[in-house]
Amino acid sequence: MPDIEGMKEAKRYYLDIPPRSEPFFLKGSQHLDWGMQNRLSRIFRPETGRTVMLAIDHGYFQGPTTGLERIDVTILPLLPYADTLMLTRGILRSQIPPTFTKGIVLRASGGPSILKELSNEQIAVDIEDAIRLDASALAVQVFIGGEYETQSIHNMTRLVDLGTRYGIPILAVTAVGKDMARDARYFRLACRICAELGAQYIKSYYIPEGFETVVASCPVPIVMAGGKKIPELDALTMAYNAVTQGAAGVDMGRNIFQSDAPVAMIQAVSKVVHELMKPKEAFDLYQTLRHEQPEA
Ligand code: R5P
Q1: Which protein residue has the closest C-alpha to ligand 1 atom 8?
Q2: Predicted local distance difference test score (pLDDT) of residue 4
Q3: CA-based nearest residue to 253, from 72, 68, 5
Q4: What pLDDT digit, counting tens, does each position of 73-110 carry?
Q5: Can 271 be counted among the known catalytic residues?
């Protein structure tokens, strides 16, 4: 029995201090549930509102991609510098130490290989397995204008329903067909459709003309897709332009792991994303680090 007689009575209610009520830091995410906001906070750094997502999921349609042949050798050294890892459950279970406690964005769509029509994807992960793996978000390709446009949107809306049920955000990845124009008009259309249909954040490509309008017309955060390998200074410049024009960070793969010095490159990218370091300065940092820190 608790000793009621002996209970300390001098309680402090701090009547002079208003209750704390802080807005959630991410655009369009104010009204999400606690679990979903908590997961988003594992992906985006609350201090800056931005993320460096390291994308290594390429194998789900193209097999052992250059730079990803041995995840244990080439990718594990990058983990301390990534805010979030985007990957398949196969690579997560087989290669990533469970001591990794940052964000995990699980590839949740798939089906066709590079030998087939890529837009013909299905949902490729059960929500229970995503929960089992404690995924911070699920990533799904959306092929606006593609052959299987409706099917890919349906994959996304189904995942949004499941994610909403369990508090797991959905990342819609705008996938552009080879023969489609990559311009602001296309990305405004694609990003807005994904947001309207419930994705909690969107991955979109940087475009030199009108990227701010893509961000402005999308009510949820956009992360910049990296794309094919380009020179390091150009990739840092692209990341700088994207974040200064409103992107909530980058989801970058080949421009990091196919760099001549991936460990140095991811650190330079992180400086750009979180500290808005100028591209030339970040490139100098990359050069310095690559000489100081020999790669595997
Ligand atoms: C997109 O289709 C997949 O998520 C890719 O694995 C990812 O977008 C690739 O990143 P990056 O283009 O920067 O290599």
Answers
A1: 225
A2: 58
A3: 68
A4: 999 999 999 999 999 999 999 999 999 999 999 999 99
A5: no
Q: Which of 102, 116, 178, 203 is catalytic?
A: 203
Token duo for residue 174: 């705008």
Question: Which stretches does DSSP call E strand in 11-102?
Answer: 51-55, 84-87
DSSP string, 94-125: HHS-TT--SEEEEE-EE---TTS-TT--EE-S
Residue 242 vs residues 15, 186, 204, 272: alpha-carbon distances, Å: 45, 17, 10, 10
Report whether pLDDT(294) > 70.
Answer: no
The length of the chain, given as a count of residues: 296
Per residue in 111-123, is it b (16+ CB within 10 Å) or e — as a string?
Answer: beeeeeebbebeb
Is 203 within 8 Å of 235 (Cβ atoms)?
no
Taking all residues of the chain, what is their mean pLDDT, rounded to a whole number? 95
Residue 176: pLDDT above 90?
A: no
pLDDT at 68: 95
Query: Where in the chain does DSSP place strands (E)?
Result: 51-55, 84-87, 103-107, 109-110, 122-123, 137-142, 170-174, 201-205, 222-225, 249-252
pLDDT at 2: 55
Give the nearest ligand 1 atom to 226 CA. Answer: 13
Question: Ligand 1 pocket: which of 109, 143, 194, 251 to mutate (most atoms <8 Å of CB)?
Answer: 251
Mapped onto helix, strand or coil, the DSSP state of residue 22 is: coil
- What is the pTM (predicted TM-score) of this model? 0.94
What would the pLDDT profile of 181-200 be if each residue is shown by its tens digit? 889 999 999 999 999 999 99
Alpha-carbon distance of 108 to 122, in angstroms, equals: 9
Pocket mutation for ligand 1, best pick of 58, 61, 119, 238 (most atoms within 8 Å of C-beta): 58
Query: Does the pLDDT at position 134 exceed 60?
Result: yes
